[in-house]
Specification:
It is built from eleven helices and no strands. The protein is mostly helical and about 200 residues long. The model has no long low-confidence stretch (mean pLDDT about 85).
Length: about 200
């Protein structure tokens, strides 16, 4: 009995590994299913669908170029009807990463990994500054709080001992020396809170 169950699962697993033969309809169904589950840039979406086309072409000996052309047609249509919107997705992603305390340099790198065009990345980062005089400052404070750096250290007496290490961690995270120095040199958490408030309302110098 146990052997038959194992064989059944093996057969089911093998069936799942067989790529479906690419047609316009099968690719569209797969594309819509993917976009229901994941937000994606146009380029990332292209990579996902092209991998599917390539597996199908290798297994079924079908024409890869024809499948790739179908993918291009799908992308054009999805962009036109709004299923793919690179700028909107990049803005949402950039804002989410900023709330996690990531630097502009790190956010830019992560958006590039997702396949966003340079102009889309630039516009998304520029929009982050609409309600914040210097989003890098706010992000660096969030980062420092999460990593317990500078004023956020549990043992404040050790701040000077770890000052250079804390500065280095902020630098590796993509923050400038000026920003790192401002945060790590703050005497109290209240001072940092005031920095954030003044920064958001455009009073930070």
């Amino acid at each position: 009995m146990m052997n038959s169950v194992i064989e059944h699962f093996k057969l089911e697993s093998q069936k799942r590994k067989v790529p479906r033969k690419v047609t316009s309809k099968s690719l569209e169904n797969a594309a819509l299913y993917y976009l229901q589950r994941f937000s994606s840039s146009s380029e990332n979406f292209r990579r996902v669908m092209i991998r599917r086309v390539k597996r199908s072409a290798q297994y079924h000996n079908t024409n890869f170029e024809e499948g790739a052309e179908i993918v291009d047609q799908l992308i054009s249509r999805f962009v036109r009807i709004g299923l793919l919107d690179d700028l909107q997705f990049a803005q949402v992603r950039a804002a989410s990463l900023r709330r996690r305390g990531l630097s502009e340099r790190t956010i830019r790198a992560k958006l590039m990994e997702r396949g966003f065009a340079a102009e889309v990345i630039n516009e998304s980062l520029e929009l982050l500054k609409c309600d914040n005089e210097d989003p890098e400052l706010t992000a660096s404070i969030i980062f420092s709080r999460k990593r317990r750096l500078g004023p956020f250290r549990e043992i404040l007496d050790k701040r000077n001992e770890f000052r250079e290490k804390d500065m280095a961690k902020l630098a590796r995270a993509g923050f400038s020396y000026h920003i790192a120095q401002k945060v790590i040199s703050a005497e109290t958490l209240e001072e940092l809170e005031e920095m954030v408030e003044n920064n958001i309302y455009g009073q930070y110098k």
